[in-house]
């Protein structure tokens, strides 16, 4: 059937509305995966910034001891770097929560619906093959086709029609739930990402901590280098 | 002479105060070089953060067009990232100015004094060699040493004494000027680094721009990826 379709032969069942929704989802998954990739890259670079700030803070602290004539200058630079490290770790917690949730959305939730879509597309191909078979038999000269062959084809056609229609229903429902879920998840994550980023980059440690509390993000350990943020 | 000294033979001219100053300088150069290395690493990681924020801002902008139900959420995240990029480029300007100036201090100014110190140390070695020679001759039996040989040794000793004392004076003066210069340069750079960092990480774009103006830092081009900040 796939080959007939490729050569423009055999008719194809097309559900335009569903096809559009499927194409939209596939495109959306690519775009969200791109945002996920960028957010992960940002988290990784930002984590290296925080690590370097920690080392720089220590170097400034040492020099504030050794350079009495520059004690004050080294000292306030040390304070600033240490403060940035402290808040940076909180922001990293928010960023890791963001990427982890988008990862689930992209690579688990969307992927699950795309798997149902693949099954639906395979069922559509089989259904159309049996449909075209039976149509060819019905169009052919009646005397050359034994009744039992027609019956058999009819039976196969009905079975695959049922299977196809069930999967079409599944896809429809999954797409609807996925879309509701996506909007809910992204609304929350984009709000978290924005509030945490804004709070950090305006030096508002209180608002940053409050944002993490609001989104129920717990920081595991301030010093572990592995992705270490619990999700809830 | 170096070998005699290593074996504990031959006397060595030691200027304790100068030696201490020289050791302090050598140690300080190592420490400042470490700060320079960290500041460069920080600049490089931070520059990658800014680049990723730029790409993420664009991705958010695209999604704010394509997701009407999340238009607002994507939109304000896009705004935030774009703002951070704009200010981030200004902070990078300050950081590049900081590293470039510390680099000059460490690898040109301090290095120049250290070269004079090397020459001084070589001259000290030669001076002590001729000093020990003539002392040996003067202690030896007078009749075995021809007058012209003694005179020649005396002449060489005087020459190297003059050279050594001149270089000792040079080192002393250079150390004094270097120290004054270092305190002046570091005071300015640490103030710049602190003010620019504070302004950026409190989201104070006006203060950030003002800091760069105060330190006469001009940003070459916002988009060039190469180190592109003019120094004055």
UniProtKB/TrEMBL annotation, chains A, B:
Compartments (UniProt record): Golgi apparatus membrane; Golgi apparatus, trans-Golgi network
GO cellular component: cytosol; Golgi membrane; trans-Golgi network membrane
GO BP annotations listed: intracellular protein transport; regulation of Arp2/3 complex-mediated actin nucleation
A GO MF label: protein domain specific binding
Record keywords, A-Z: Coiled coil, Golgi apparatus, Membrane, Phosphoprotein
Stretches assigned to the AH domain: 13-213
Coiled coil: 120-170
Domain of life: Eukaryota
Keyword Cytoplasm: no
UniProt-recorded name of the protein: AH domain-containing protein
Organism: Magallana gigas (Pacific oyster)
Native organism taxonomy: Eukaryota, Metazoa, Spiralia, Lophotrochozoa, Mollusca
Part of the intact protein present: 122 to 353 of 353
